[in-house]
Protein 1
Amino acid sequence: MVALVIRRSIQSVVVMLVVALLAFTLFRYVGDPVAMMVGQDTSLVERAALREKLGLNDPVPLQFARFVVNTAQGQFGISYQIGRPVAELLVERMPATLELSLVAALFALFIGIPMGVYTALNPKKWLSTVFLTISLIGISLPTFLIGILLILLFGVVLGWLPTFGRGEVVQLGWWTTGFLTASGWKSLLMPAFTLGMFQLTLIMRLVRSEMLEVLLTDYIKFARARGLSNRAVNFGHALKNTLVPVITITGLQLGSIIAFAIITETVFQWPGMGLLFIQAISLVDIPIMSAYLVLIAMFFVVINLIVDILYHVVDPRLRVDVRGAQG
Amino acid sequence: MCVAPRGNAVRHAQRVLDSLHRFFDGDIWYSFKQSRVTVTAAVVTAVLVLSALFAPLISLQDPFDPAALDLMDAFTPPVWAADGSWEFPLGTDNQGRDLYSAILYGSRLSLLIGFASVVFALTIGVGLGLVAGYLGGAVDAVIMRIADVQISFPGILIALLIDGVARAVLPNERHDELVVYVLILAIGLSQWVQFARTVRGSTMVERNKEYVLAARVIGVSRPRIMLRHILPNVMGPVLVIATVSLAVAILTEATLSFLGVGVPPTQPSLGTLIRIGQDFLFSGEWWIVIFPGATLAVLVLAANLLGDWLRDAFNPKLR
């Protein structure tokens, strides 16, 4: 177990270093950082001074080392377009993205799992067919189209929900939250639904296929033979074993939710990190691009690491050889 | 190669006919005919692909040609609305572009980018998979580690990133003409992993079979063994992945264009049209979004259904 944790941690560090190298290359070699930062009328002397101050004349490995150290401390440089430290911008935008992703993930889990269980237990009922059709549509309709259709229906035609922004937010220290106001919740509904829809269909299909498989196993038959109630068999025995892969996949999907938030945030003009990143790409604002890259990679690497380790904790079959060795 | 003798050509044609016969008598064709949903999906896909292919013949104007557009025609509603006209059956966008023609040309662009990026991903993925599976050892380890890292990130993020870098590297004024290639590169590179993993798996099984051993004994070179002997035997699952990848690729292109980092509005793809339309939702011009959106959804749904069916048809366990 300890060996596994160490091995996986080393792997994660290597991945992060590779990502950092990518981000560094992007920052250092795409365009001239000095030309991007100064105005047209800056003299050559001033430019040379800035170049020296930024350390761009040092050997490249040294520059990379400095980049890694700075990044690890959360210093991502200054945005070319906005002219403020990137770290500050990210911190400002992060609560919006995280709140949206959290609500979307909970929505996907708490609707997706029951839907999956229902379709597995009652495959012949008409409601199952409805659920499966919804899931197929959910997979085929692009996220942004779902968002636009929602805006058209609830925003334009019915006029019930706001179509952009976060509504009123409350400041809690450095964190801004939309959870405490009615308009915040109203603004959150459509984006969270849009973002959660794809994950919901994924979770539902996964739960369904896992559950169908588990229901065919011998211990379920045995449980029925013992005369246990349907409820005890279905939920006490079958669902419990279904949830192991579901937990893993959901964990891994958490990262994709944050990534897919880019699209949702663009549709609803949600002031999160994704919107910042998209704007940075179209304006070639490289410090923001590379910072976002590093941050997202870190999310993914940490989540993958935790899921991998959890998997070994939850699934005893993966520990067999270790226990065998211990005696 | 030299010109094949006549007899050879006839024999070749005969062989093709034979395999066609076998195909139509076989269970794959049978299972295809049995599934009404699949037949519908295939017909829909065929219609969409053909109309995209022959867009210049069946469209009413060339939507990519600024001279053909008249701003006075902008925001004409579809023909059944009060002030619609047969000149623009599905209405026009903000530039006075006929939406019906724009959708035809747009799906042409979407399909082109989709197909090309799948072919690109397939070539890289199958190539690396073959090499990794056949050679094993350090080469295998390196390729598969890269694949492991890449697969833990969603494809759209990778494509977005490659697109963003290309945007930064290329000079601004050349970006519009190169954008199609950039998109093919970005989407293709975001999808090779699945091909590589599958092909590597089947190659490792095939490698130890007797026909490969026989080929090695008579001194066939490694590249030839991989391409002529192993490749044909690992292509089955690759076709299934390719169909599903096509749906994903079309979606990715549409998403990138919608986000404003894909095809520019001067030559709109389906995603770009939807992006244009989103700005006019609130003023009531719903048709600019709805028609391209519906086309995109139907296209992707059909490709997904075909992929689902192919996966089942090629899976001997389910037969």
Protein 2
Amino acid sequence: MKRFYYFIKKAFQNLRHFFLINLITVGIISLSLLVLSTFFMVFLNLQTYLNKWKDQIQVSVYLADSNTPEDISLIQKKINSFPQVKKLSLITKEEALSFFKDSFPGQKKALESLKDNPLPASMDIQLQDEYRGPDEVNFFALQIKKIPGVEDVEYGQTWIEGYANFLRFMRSAALAVGVVILLATIFIISNTIKLTLFARKDEIEIMKLVGATNFFIRVPFFIEGILQGLLGAFFALIVLFVFYQLFSNWIAQSSYFSLKFFKIFFLPLPHLLLITAVGMITGFLGSFFSLGKYLKYE
Amino acid sequence: MIQMFHVYKNYSPKYPALSDISLKIEKGEFVFIFGPSGAGKTTLLKLIFGAEHPSKGQIIVNGMNFGRIKKSTLPLLRRRMGFVFQDFKLLNHRTVFDNVGLALEVVGLKKTEIKRKVQQVLKHVGLLSRINTVPLVLSGGEQQRVAIARAIVNEPALLLADEPTGNLDAELTKEIMKLFKIINAWGTTIVIATHDKNLLNFNPTKVVALEKGKIKGVFVAGRKGAEEAATPEGSIN
């Protein structure tokens, strides 16, 4: 414990002694993490926005005209027993016709000339959140179609598939870009720390001369790397928050009507912790790999 | 203290840095490794200090066979040795106290003990008044005395010095050599590598003359004969 306290003290002492070089390192780490966290924030906002479309997914079940009111009630019961169903609304033939008449008043005459009501009875089904994926909707529709008395099931298949494809594409693209940015961040941070260590190779050499073990030399450097990462993440998130506030204000005051309803949110806590962890881990790994090179020499 | 048996060191097969070095240095001796630049003096010191490993042969320092020790034991052995270099190798952004205390921090001594020992050793080398100064504002001789203080603060059995007066004028050289003599009088074995024949006037107990990686001869003080002819001047007094 006493040793650990010594190492922490030493790390802080080194941060102070090499103030300028550490300031530059922390600055570069901050910039790298700012790019990463901005990307995270844009991606998360976009994803949430796209997920809102999902809420509008609805399945329409059209019933055969041959169904008696008892049959319809039985079908309704059967469908309601599916765990996927959140809400079911029945639209009788009469209701459908009246809705049609209200929606298309120009067609009133044409409809009146018909002997029978050509519109089928139907049910509009809202699904539970977890069953709104394209595969789940498709599976549900197939099962409903099998129920006797059901003539057709519609759920905007093409739209859902297009949306799912877009979401898949966006996720893959985001993953690829995210990985590239993350690797670039790790590369930049570890190289910056490597340069810092290069400037201090004499110190490492002298410590070895006086009989310091590799452990004794390493630990303060590791702590320093972690602290640099922590400080870098802290400043990056502060700058991101300032940008976020400015952007939110700009949107709120925007004269574009559609933008006013577009609310962006800041990174949630788990993501803030993740960015901080990325900073600290890369700071540690940067020191770890760069130091190895200097400790090889005896 | 130091024994070398048929030691070879090759960095490239064509130009061996050291060839067939056999040498014995007793406890308490004051030894010069003497020879021109490129003779292999620094390589010889590096072998004693464990910074290099021999290509062939055996080296025993303080009873430990350097060919057989584990890498992790090397720092522990170094704590029983002191080193002084021509370029001082001081941490210029740290105070004199920090520089000297580093050797004690490494051992894990308490803060109060470090303070006491550093003050004591700085008093010995005449730099107590400069304890809170950074090395860059000190003269060359003072910087070398700081390096010596760091080398002896652990009371090592062996002190190695590579051209310790190479950057100093005649007056400061005399001062530093006097200090080495005092440390030697305390019982510390001292091995100094130098190309400066003037240093041979400081009464070493032994002079090992090196040339092109080979021992040309060993002069032992107070002994006449074949060994004496080995030193370039034939005599050191």
Protein 3
Amino acid sequence: MTAVIETEGLGKRYRARWALAGCTLSVPAGHVVGLVGPNGAGKTTLINLATGMLAPNAGTIEVLGGRPAAGPAQLARVGYLAQDAPLYAGLPVADHLRLGAHLNPGWDAELARRRVERLGLDPGQKAGTLSGGQHAQLALTLAVAKRPDLLILDEPVASLDPLARREFLQDLMEAVAEQEMSVVLSSHLISDLERACDYVIVLAGSRVRVAGPVDELLATHHRLSGPRRDPASLPGGLQVISASHTDVQTTLLVRTSGPVFDPAWTLSEVGLEDLVLAYMKQAARPAPRNSHRRLEVQK
Amino acid sequence: MIEFHLDGRSGVAPYMQLIHQVRHALRLGLLHEGDQLPKVKDVAAGLAINPNTVLKAYRELEYERLVAARPGVGTFVTGTLDGGSLAAHGPLRRELQRWLAKARRAGLDDESIEALFASTFRSASEENIA
């Protein structure tokens, strides 16, 4: 199966600063991919590269096997919802659907109509007067009715209240179940995405820190605690992501390919949130603080 | 039809929570043979979870022969967990595994183990009849 996003040494530079560097990824189709990282990590830059709105300064990127925004056929296969879900404030709901129908060759008018009806949106209402939640739902409707093979959403729930956030994700998951569609959505909060994603990419300090199917990540990461010892003395095959020590005890978060047999360690499972945070913390440690702050260019 | 719920703080993986809820409903008699499980799409939409998570739970239940998928129709209950006898399988199996390990440590090979089990099983059954 073709990868939905395949990158090799991908990088994007703004003047002297690399907003994204050395990014090598191969994201298989059929997943809901969570792109997680602190603000300024490079999430929006990666998304803009994938949608073809930015051109890379280094490396290559292929989306659904083609160059991003290479032509009408490629554009029709990729749906994109920008941060804050831009709509035309003065344009009524019905006109947004009409616009969608004219601009997208694969437009599913029936799907769009059904969704607007179920959401209880008044076709005559102007988009600018919709509530935050309705606004996001209408934008999602436009993106989904385009019938893309890949839907990319940049921080889709960041500006929504908890109820609207839940409703948006419910709606998105229903669309995923109905259509054979891969999804990439970004957030700086993994808790927003934990239920929805089955694949995670952690971006921090302009680099990919870890990427993989959630099941696999959870199965290969463990928390080890035991009597204090130097992490350097650990058996091979263990990659230490985070370590903390007291005078008598050492607690590690490790990645391992096989079982840990050393009886001195107590092994416990790690949740996705702790796992992601450990990688973000690892990214924050070696580099000086100012090297990975505000690298993301906000428009 | 049952309705699923998720406890975000339980630390139990969502697909496991779905499995537990089906097994629980079977044990409590809320689900019977022939009953349909909620559609994947409805569970995904209801709980805002990934449809693959629901599929994974249903596949696992299928593997346990508790449900069967009819393509294009849905997933239906085919097994029962009444009497709680299935629930006892796990602990019994673990006890048996411990016993097997002990037998091997004592030097018994596969054949001796089988023979010992068969003869003990027979004599225990005879005692019950008597």
